[in-house]
TrEMBL record:
This is VWA2 protein. GO terms for biological process: calcium-independent cell-matrix adhesion. The gene is Vwa2. Residues 730-744 have a biased composition (Polar residues). Residues 675-710 form the EGF-like domain.
Length: 750
């Protein structure tokens, strides 16, 4: 293996944010270790240090601590994933301020290797430029499905020699060596040269797709008649974007004949193994528009592994039923050019993987292999099976392997017998490895299946054998919805979060709740016409962090959530709900008549005794109350607050909140489609009376005037009529579309 032996300080910046995830973080560590193979680590030659960055940079080890390759690689293996937001710019500013920790003070060349998905949440252009102005050579290495444009901004010039892909570690390690050879390292090995050829760079993008135009409600800070217009309705889909690029590879000669690396799959020349030569592949700055380069829709492109129960508990009949179900499912969803990579494992006391993920590319061979599966019998150790699959189930994309692409990895558990070992810890371990777990089983297994998935939405419980086959479309939807946030799309919604910030919750748990609100808000399209969001935190008193009409973009809402403080006093959920009723869900604070309204209470369940009556008052005025409680709490009291078991969600721990996000958003969005009553809650201010008309409303005012009784009638003035005729609520937009208050079919009387 070719190595760089010059005096050199190399600092790794390892992305440890949530967008990377634990599984890809482990692959990043493995990749960093492989890059070290291209460096001659020695006190007098190459020294290596590492910083992990997410919300803040964290020094893992300085350059002067480990002075042998074995020590460096062992220390990299022990690094623990931290999680947080992706603040690449902050990490670069840290380097600008502190320099290379333990380095030789620029007396030797300095190289920085950034391993990231390129999805920073802060600005990187200026600090990256300042780092490069200090003569630091910057390599940007893409992991997972990276944002290539940002990586090119981070990298040194020429970018085609400084942007690498972690998907093929041998190529990238040689690419690093090849670039350094041209500057600080000794000349390349005799008989080796760099050749270029066309190649591709791939990434996943969530793309908006226009589905049509539907009626939505126009909100405004100015009191005015209720108006409606047509708004675009979007759906979201994940697509695989392929960017044409140019790759450079080192090709070495043996006895006068060019020998490309075994990884050089694009070459048509005979391939011979040359242990002294590796390949390098660099990204080239020739990206086309993402949409012009679009080649493959990724609505359902996953690495998919079916884990079938083959124990005595499921019986031979049940095992054969699952085989038939599996074949019918694959026949329904696999096309000739299906992007799915499918594998099958079966378990009892042990686990076997007779069909590796991606082993068969054609449906016929796959079906033939499924037919050959045999019933095993024995015990039912589902927990052990999940643990094994998390470590060994995806041989094409495991932690320690060179991979070309990383698709979402999905495990579908098929079982009809209770596990004889614990499943919760093993399932959580699997989910932490970036595996999406879906469980299919008989209805009496629902509790255990949900324990496996960590999310009731990913549990499919069937009533009888025929019902199992009826669930094929549902299973397809569950698989294809992996990492596909949709929110409520174009359904108008006024949404308020009430977050318990009391001492009973505690600071650490409050941060979990804030993170959950932040993550949930990112699923909605926030603007005046679609979703408006308010945040209230409460202890003994309630505080509005921002009102419904304060922020009109997702980024502004997310920044405001981060600023919400922990209160740390006693809790009163009742006061919080009264505050929301009187000071949040009102027209003067941005609430829109004719739009569904939902309050989500996040609490540990303490001090809810005073909340039942205010919650009922909200419901009586057309405002739905969801209660999300974490930990042990009195169910009877919580049911009175929620009003129905459908609106009460009990979660065992704060760490499990993330697994219930999709379920909560789905239920909220179902309510956003319900019919509404224009007079609930009352849009009229100052004790005005709301009177429904035919598809509209008017406010009857006493001592006040204006469409919503917002202006006091001054003494001595001749009061104008407080009653607005219905026709005054019908306005003509500049586009010629007649704006109206609300269609009569949407109005419900209470």
């Amino acid at each position: 293996v070719m190595q760089c032996s010059a005096s050199l300080d190399v600092l790794f910046l390892l992305d440890g944010s949530y967008s990377i995830g634990k599984g890809s973080f482990e692959r990043s560590k493995h990749f960093a270790g492989k890059l070290c193979d291209a460096l001659d680590i020695h006190p007098d030659r190459v020294r290596v240090g590492m910083i992990q960055f997410s919300s803040t940079p964290h020094l893992e080890f300085p350059l002067d601590l480990y002075l042998s390759k074995q020590e460096v690689k062992e220390r990299i293996r022990r690094i623990v994933f931290r999680g947080g937001s992706t603040e690449t710019g902050r990490a670069l500013k840290y380097i600008l301020r502190k320099g290379f920790p333990g380095g030789r003070n620029s007396s030797v060349p300095e190289v920085m290797i950034i391993i990231s998905d390129g999805k920073s949440q802060d600005s990187t252009a200026m600090p990256a430029m300042q780092v490069k102005e200090r003569h630091v050579v910057v390599f940007a290495v893409g992991i997972k499905f990276p944002r290539w444009e940002e990586l090119h901004t981070l990298a040194s010039e020429p970018t085609e020699q400084h942007v690498l892909f972690a998907g093929d570690t041998n190529d990238a390690a040689n690419g690093l060596y090849s670039t350094l050879t041209g500057s600080v390292c000794s000349a390349s090995a005799p008989g080796c040269k760099v050749e270029s050829h066309p190649c591709e760079r791939r990434t996943l993008e969530t793309v908006k797709e226009l589905a049509g135009n539907y009626v939505c409600w126009k909100g405004s800070k100015q009191p005015n008649a209720v108006r409606a217009s047509l708004c675009p309705f979007y759906r979201w889909k994940r697509v695989l974007i392929k960017h044409p690029s140019r790759c450079f590879r080192t090709v070495c000669s043996v006895t006068g004949h060019d020998v490309p690396s075994p990884h050089h799959r694009a070459s048509s020349r005979p391939q011979q193994r040359c242990p002294a030569c590796l390949c390098c592949c660099h990204a080239y700055d020739e990206m086309l528009s993402p949409f012009s380069a679009l080649k493959l829709s990724l609505e359902c492109s996953v690495d998919l592994l079916f884990l079938m129960d083959s124990s005595a508990g499921v019986t031979l009949e049940g095992f054969l039923r699952y085989k038939a179900f599996l074949k019918r499912f694959l026949q329904a969803v696999m096309g000739q050019d299906s992007p799915m990579n499918v594998g099958v494992a079966q378990y009892n006391n042990t686990v076997m993987i007779p069909i590796e993920v991606g082993q068969y590319k054609d449906a016929f061979s796959l079906m033939k292999s499924i037919d050959a599966l045999n019933f095993s019998g024995g015990g039912t150790l589902t927990g052990r099976a999940l643990q094994y699959i998390a470590q060994h189930g995806f041989r094409s994309t495991p932690v320690f392997a060179d991979v070309q692409d990383e698709l979402p990895r999905v495990v579908v558990l098929l079982t009809d017998s209770k596990s004889q070992d614990p499943v919760a810890e093993a399932a959580k371990y699997a989910r932490d490895q970036d595996l999406s777990l879906i469980a299919v089983g008989s209805s009496f297994m629902r509790a255990e299946l949900t324990e496996v998935t960590g999310n009731p939405k990913k549990t499919i419980a069937y009533l009888d054998p025929q019902d199992l086959f009826n669930r094929i479309p549902e299973l397809q939807r569950r698989i294809c919805s992996v990492d596909n946030p949709e929110g409520c799309q174009a359904q108008s919604l006024d949404l308020a979060f009430a977050v318990d910030a009391s001492a009973g919750v505690g600071l650490e748990s409050f941060l979990w709740l804030k993170g959950f609100v932040r993550s949930s808000c990112s699923h909605f399209s926030i603007n005046r016409d679609v979703t408006q969001i308010a945040l209230v935190i409460y202890g003994s008193k309630a505080h509005t962090m921002f009102a419904l009409d304060t922020h009109t973009s997702n980024s502004a809402v997310l920044q405001a959530i981060d600023r919400a403080p922990f209160l740390g006093d006693s809790a009163s959920a009742g006061r919080a709900l009264l505050h929301i009723y009187g000071d949040v869900m009102t027209v003067q604070k941005g609430a829109r008549p004719g739009v569904n309204k939902v309050v989500v209470v996040l609490t540990n369940g303490g001090s809810m005794e005073d909340a039942a009556a205010p919650a009922q008052q909200l419901r009586d005025n057309g405002i739905l109350v969801f209660v999300v409680v974490i930990g042990d709490a009195q169910r009877d009291t919580l049911l009175k607050v929620a009003g129905s078991p459908n609106y009460l969600i009990h979660i065992s721990s704060y760490e499990d909140l993330q697994y219930y996000k999709d379920l909560i958003i789905e239920r909220i969005c179902e309510e956003a489609k319900s019919p509404v009553n224009l007079c609930k809650p009352n849009p009229c201010m100052n004790q005005g009376v709301c009177i429904l008309g035919s598809g509209s409303y008017r406010c009857e005012c006493h001592g006040w005037e204006g469409p919503h009784c917002e202006s006091r009638v001054l003494r001595g003035d001749s009061p104008r009529s407080p009653v607005l005729p219905f026709h005054s609520h019908v306005q003509q937009s500049s586009s010629g579309l007649q704006n109206f208050s609300i269609a009569s079919r949407h109005t419900r009387q209470h």
